[in-house]
């Protein structure tokens, strides 16, 4: 049990929390109070679980390298890039949301959903490349086809 990496178990939390938080943040443009506060809570929890997923990624990488070699390395690097971009975009959205509490300028209300949408796109790409690694690991006959 302890040899199994935590990363595949944790990654589902930021996916669900960040996507639902993004949807609620967009809905808050019309119905401000409830959706806005709930979105901030979900985005914050999603970001924290996303950081945990990012930090456990090295263990998953090590596990995969030991079991399947280095053939998947370019996928790992691409997956890591999109994961970092996801965390950055959602961090910006949360900081803008907190600034909006202090200085309620209309520009923040417009930028927050934009960063949530961009973060959601990066999240989808992160998941796509993570899924590619899982697929390749389960289908080892494809490993020679990957770029080294």
TrEMBL record:
Residues 4-137 form the DUF2231 domain. It comes from the Bacteria. The chain crosses the membrane at residues 6-27, 39-60, 80-100, 107-129. The keyword Mitochondrion does not apply. Keywords: Membrane, Transmembrane, Transmembrane helix. This is DUF2231 domain-containing protein. It comes from Sporolactobacillus mangiferae. The lineage of its organism: Bacteria, Bacillati, Bacillota, Bacilli, Bacillales.
